[in-house]
Amino acid sequence: MISKHALGFFLSFILSIGLSGCKNESKIQNNNNDRTVKEERELLVEKPADIETPEGMVWVKGKSFLQGAKEGDPYAMPREKPGHNVKVDGFFMDVTEVTNKQFKAFVDATNYITVAERPIDWEVMKNELPEGTKKPHDSVLQPGSLIFNKNIKKVATMGNYSQWWTWKIGANWKHPEGPKTTIEGKDEYPVVHIAYEDALAYCKWANRSLPSEAQWESAAQGTSTQDIYTWGNDPEVLNEKANTWQGIFPVKNESKDGFELIAPVKSYPANSIGIYDMLGNVWELTSDLFNVNYYNEIDVSKEMINPTGATKSYSPDNPYQVEHVIKGGSYLCNASYCASFRISAKMGTSLDSASDHTGFRTIATVEQLKKLD
After folding, report:
1. How confident is the model at residue 249, as a pLDDT?
2. What does the mean pLDDT of the chain come to?
3. Which of 353, 21, 4 is CA-nearest to residue 199?
4. Peptide bond just before 250 cis, omega within 30 deg
5. Which fold has domain 2-370?
6. What one-character DSSP code corresponds to residue 176?
7. Which among 176, 358, 191, 189 has a CA at the least distance from the CA of 282?
8. Among 59-73, 185-199, 335-349, which is the least confidently predicted range?
9. Where would a tag sit more exposed on the chain, N or C end, judged by fewer CB atoms within 10 A?
10. Residue 252: its pLDDT value, please?
11. For the residues 31-51, what does the mean pLDDT come to?
12. What digits encode the pLDDT tens for the residues 313-370?
């Protein structure tokens, strides 16, 4: 969802972060082609006895399951259809979203500077925008990120998302609501304002990867194979199970689930294999390219093995930038607006977009861990 918002803000003078974009499309698409896995072999189901589970992770057994829209899901979008059978090897996944404490350890060790903190180069940014887009005033071309306007009292139309998003100069992972805010005392909150390349940098440092969409859905299913939610198929327990929006979005938040906005990790029950917050709280980045037509273009009569997603990014809402799939919804999800508190739900986010409701978690494969030995 956020890449569409970021570009829209730019075109109405509030800009998205812009350091990468269409010029990288060919490279990304070629890499994705190379990553497609279709070999016939026995599925890795159980954790190998000679591999120890990394701290803070859990083993996700290899299995066959239904990826995409589930029967009986009234909120399923066209991009989630048709549901199709896939097989995914076992792997390890973080039990929580990457926290402020964990991300700080990475920054302290590497002196890494996130996209939201970097100076903006208009000469680079304009290459990913429609020809003729006018340069904003230098006062706007400052490092920052998108934050939710929690003080909005009414909206003219739900189609105008700029009413509840604000481009905030100085907002970044250390200052999630702007330069006067801090993460002090919030070690166990998910890190936010993370762009795709920030997540990749963290993964490289930690010897981890971002999950594919199929891996993410496998983990979200836990011991199940075709549930709509991480706890089953009962929507009535949503407020007990996930951090989402209750009330009238975006003007009235009743906070029936205990939190107005973002929550510390592990504030809600884990799924059947011990993974927390796969639905709600913050959107989570994946390695797959976002293509609204992808499921309609694959052969769903055959079970796919370790799919890595589309080979080309495509979204009519954001045609100028490459986008990746984000999963799980966030604390802003409401049935009347996006209803993305479902396993099959997905949105797209551009490589350089960041916001206060997008984070990530990582995976580790057996192959990655063996390389450490």
Report:
1. 80
2. 87
3. 353
4. yes
5. paralog of FGE (formylglycine-generating enzyme) (3.90.1580)
6. B
7. 358
8. 335-349
9. C
10. 82
11. 70
12. 999 988 888 999 999 999 999 988 889 999 999 999 999 889 999 999 999 999 999 9
> How would you class 170 by CB atoms within 10 Å of its CB: exposed for 0-12, middle for 13-18, buried for 19 or more?
middle
Helix runs in the chain, H state only: 2-11, 25-34, 100-110, 122-125, 196-206, 213-221, 238-241, 294-297, 366-370
Nearest alpha carbon to residue 294 among 363, 348, 330? 348
Token duo for residue 267: 């504030």
Distance CA 109, CA 227 (A): 40
Domain boundaries along the sequence of the chain: 2-370
Residue 177's nearest CA partner among 300, 75, 260, 60 is: 260
Cis peptide bond N-terminal to 119, omega within 30: no
What pLDDT is attached to residue 149? 78
Phi, psi (deg, nearest 5) at residue 344: -80, -15
- Is residue 210 within 8 Å of 363, Cβ to Cβ? yes
The token duo for 224 is 């199940």
Read off the pTM: 0.88
Q: Residue 219 is encoded by which pair of tokens?
A: 């983990």
The pLDDT of residue 160 is 63
Token pair belonging to 235? 């929507």
HSE-CB of 9 using CA atoms within 13 angstroms = 29
